[in-house]
Each structure stands twice: as structure tokens, then as C-alpha cells.
Records
---
Amino acid sequence: MRYHGTVIRPPSEANSFILQVTYGCSHNKCTFCGTYLDKPFRTRPVNEVLEDIRLARRLRPETRRVFLADGNALVLSTSRLVSILDELAAGLTLLERVGIYANARDLLGKSESDLRLLCQKGLGIVYLGLESGSDEVLHSVRKGATAAEMIQAVQKAQAAGMRTSVIAILGIGGPKLSSVHAEETGRAVSAMDPDYFSMLTLMLVPGTELYREWQGGAFQLLDPEAMLLELRQSILHLNGLSHCVFRTNHASNFLPLAGTLSEDKKQLLATLDAALALGRPALRPDAWRGL
């Protein structure tokens, strides 16, 4: 398999066959994200994609999961995605699920019938970066979508039969917007009721606009305790979720948490409170954190 530039995937896709079908991100304007700064968006030639699938059939016949990269591969036309999914199904006989990154525009731009077709063809889970439920925060980081649009997008994917995994970022509003970011993120995720919800912790990436804002004093990074307090406030506002699995197992986080929000909310809050009482010794060292 051949890869171009930086390739990322969700933690839950660690054992998946990563198949690049696009390069970069079609939006690529978020002030905090440095993943694709050196990789302009373009569609990967379909013959190369099909060659990699045939190669995987020989080298990884045991493959059960595939993740379609890069940043928002759902931007591809439905017909292009169907041809890729059909080739995967034909070549990998043990295949159980295909996952993909998407943004609100990708999901809202496809018809309900298109999304149902993609689900029937094996596209089983969509990962969406909410980042924040606050429109003020989303505007400040140039996300390119409102919270309402992302809620609608997630609900549309769910109606088509897809599982949804939503990601938000602790600290992205800075001290000034920390409280509204936490509360509105909890409310937005509650409205989405995704299958999975995870929170990352903001780590400033050199070369990004947010990093330059921090260098110039226009943005302040929360300290570890403030990050945990923001996490606690977010969890407090997660209500009415049916079966949502919650994780903070990403390497950027100071404290790994795991549970089902409908059952484990009190225990998650108790674990957070215990860590806050212990202070820095209870947290992951900075040297162990990363993107």
C-alpha cells in the first residue's frame, strides 16, 4: 500500500487497513489543525485506489475493517465511493465494516438515498469533528459549519443506518469561552445522541494560525486543571443519551476515561473529581502526550 503525506485515523481504527482515497482536507481552514498544511486537497486516482485494494487482498486477506482516508473522504461522489466499496467487498471476503471521516457539508450534501446506499454497500461508521457545540467557538476556529448543521448531519447519517462517532476538543475556546464551550458541546452532543463520543485535548501545532495567535498573546492555553474542569462541565451537560460510548483515550488527554454515558456518568464524574483532588500526579505526563 502506498501513502502520500501525513495520514491520520481515529484511535478505534488502529487495526484497520487504511486506504487513502483522497489527499488532504477539502476545507483545510481550521485554525488549530496542522495535519494537511503541506498537502493540498485532491482526489486520488481511482486506478491507484483499486490497485491498493488488490494488493491488500494478497497481503492482508484477514482484513475485517477498512478506514477511508484522508480528512473528509466522504466528499467524493457517491458513485466513486460505491465503486470503492464494491471493490473492497469483492476483494476482502472477511470485511465487516468500512469507516470514513466526514464534515457537515459532506453529509448534508448527499441525499438520504445516497447515504442509505453507501450504508448498504458497507460504509458502517462516520467520524465527524464537532470540535465545539458553541457557534462562537466554531466561528473563531473557522470550522466552516454551525453546531446546528453538524447536529443535522449526524442525525442524517444515523437515519441512513450508519453509526456515528463525534469528536470535540477540550480547551479550544481558551479561558474566555471555556464555560460556554463546555456547556454547548454537551448540549450539541446530547442532541446528536451519537454511538460514540470522544474528547481530545488541544495541543498547539507550530505553523497553524492558532499557534501564531498563542505566540502573539491573542489566545491562551488552559492549564491541565482547567482542562479537566472543562471536561467535567461538558459531561454534566451530556443528558438523554441512549447508548453513547464515551472515551478520552486519545494520547493528547491528561486523563483517560471510558464508559457508557447512560450508565456511567456518575462514575466518570467521580473519577474526574478524584483526579482533580490529587492534582498533577494523577495526570498523564506531558512527555507522554501527543497527537
---
Amino acid sequence: MPRDTRSAVPFFSGILSLLLFALSGIPVQAGEGDAGKEVRSPAASLDEEVQSLKQEVLALNRDLFLLEEELLFPSSTQLAVFLSLDVGEFFALDSVQLKVDDKVVTNYLYTEREVQALHRGGVQRLYMGNIKSGEHELVAIFTGKGPNGRDYRRGANHVITKSLGPSFVELKIVDLESKEQPDFEIKEWE
């Protein structure tokens, strides 16, 4: 059973806030210049110190984001599902619903711009989550306009065998010229 990771994000945000609070209380001393050296004003020194701290906080934030991704989606249990289109006249995508083991994991309603991006070769990460090893059934339900402008709703299913390491699955919508119908494929990437 996947563990509840909802508390991880506030935890890391709290650490970052605490670090920023702690850094804001560090006293900054203006250095005294030696004879013959340029004397820097306290404001310039403070500005440099603030810029340095900003860079450190940005680097820390990046590291925390990567750590959060690792904690929430460890590669040994990771499942990522992507969507791509190779359609023209037989199907206009409106929405996709994805189920893993009869549990709805995502519903996505597409805008016209998103559909155009998919038509230009874009690939969307539809879902990323954790599943345990073993067999799992994926069901994708596609809704849109089919041939002759009729409402169209069609499902596709696929059983994957999850082993150690990440699993990547592609939902692909293609035109079947011979049948003048769209076809919905689910395939695993190696």
C-alpha cells in the first residue's frame, strides 16, 4: 500500500522557511578597509551578502525539489503514463480518464491549444505515481468527436507487469485510414 506523502511537501517548505528565517537574522558587519584599499560602504557589502544568500537559497530549493521527487516517486515503484496523438480527420480529443486497477488516477480535459501541441508532435505526461510490483490493469477512456462529427467515447485497456525500476507507458491515438476510424493503443516502453 503506498504511503501517504502529502505531509512531505509542507515539511520541506517548512524547512526552507526556517532556513530563510535563520539567514535573515545573521548580522552583517561592514569591513574596515586598510589604508590604500577601497573602502566599501555597508550597504554595498550587505547587498553582496544578500545576493550570495539568494543564490544559496535557490540552490537549496533546487536540491529540495529533486529530493522531494525522489521521495514521492521512487524509481523502484514509479509508473509514468504519457499521451501522444497521430490523428487527423477521424478523432478530435476532448478528454482522457485513466484508471489503474479500477481506481481513477487522473481525468484530463484538453484545451484547443493543448490538442494543437499534441498534433504538432508533443507528448504529455498524463500521470506519474507509485504502484507495487506485480500485474496491474490500465484502462484509458478517450472522449471526443469521432468520424462525421459524432460524439465518440472509447476505452482501451492493457495489463502491465511491474517489476523493479520505473515503468513507462504510452497511450497513443492514431488514425486507421483503412477503417476510417481512430485506434487507441497502449504500449510499454522498454
---
Amino acid sequence: MGRVLTLQINSEFVEFDDEHLKFLMIRDITEVKVVEAKMQYLAYHDPLTGLLNRLVLHSKFQELITIENPFSIVMIDLDKFKEINDTYGHQIGDQVLQYIASLLKQAGEETDSIYRIGGDEFLILIIEPEGSVEKVRNYIEESLKHSVTSIVDTPLSLSLSIGVSRYPEDGTNEDILIKRADEDMYLTKRTKKGSLLER
């Protein structure tokens, strides 16, 4: 099978023995471009889950607020993630985060962007009408309710706490909106009882 190469071509005209000659200098820069693409990807994505990161989120917030485009944010936190790490180890914890990321990606149609903003915290940015927030929330809760992962031998039940805030009703800048959604999320978390792990 053929291989695609990226070539850099420079040309220069010179005069030699009253003749005008053109020199072409061709250099294979394929590997350089591959490295550049990887660096650019890592600058804007979370390396563990492949989701967009805080840098992209900040830029998107500024864009939407500047044009006064209404939007909602859905903050998502994995319940008792420390318990998972302590019980099964960080490698399993990472697999759980990847599982949650894949679940959130399936929310697809109703979301514009999905971000990992912290260890076990995710954010969905929704630019559709307000009603789509509930669709996303319901989709996530129902999908997780019926899912028992096979990441570890012992059945592992997962649950998420979700908080929502809306621009401009709940705030007009990024910090306030995230704070409001975070407060809503932790209010939900405090009302939950029981253990995350089924033994």
C-alpha cells in the first residue's frame, strides 16, 4: 500500500554561463507534520478521553457570550470516583472515565461540545433550545441506570451527579455560569445515599 508524504519544495533561479537555471530543493517533512498534528491535538484535547479540554471551552464561552447567543451548560461529576480508585486502582479508574466519556459522546445530536474539565468532571455545552437540556439529562441518567460495566470482575454500578446553568439567565460570564452549575450539581450529589459499589 502506498504512503502519503508531505514534501516541502523550494525553488531558486540562478544565472550560470549566461543561462538562467532553476534549482528545486525537495525535502520530506512528513514526520515533522505528524508531530505538529499530534501537538496541536494534545493542546485542545484531553489525552485520556479524547474529549475537548478547558482551553477550547474557554474560547467557546467567549465566542458565544460575545455574540449574546443563549446556551446551557450541563456539569457532570462521577459519584464516589475516589472509592473506585482506592478499591480497584488508577488504571481501572482511567477505564471508567473513558467509559463515561464514550457514554456522553452518544448524547450526540443534542450537544455541540463535550469537555473533560477535571479529574472526574465533564461539561456539555448545549446551544439548542432549552428543552434539549432535559433530553440530554434524561438520556445520560437512563443510559447509566441500565448499564453495568464489565471493566472489572466485580459488578460496578456507576452514577453521575448533574447540574445545569443557563446563559444569560444564571450569569453573564464563564466563571459565574460554571459556579452556578457546580452548585446545582453538588446539591444533587448531597441528596444521594448509599454506596456506589455493589459488592
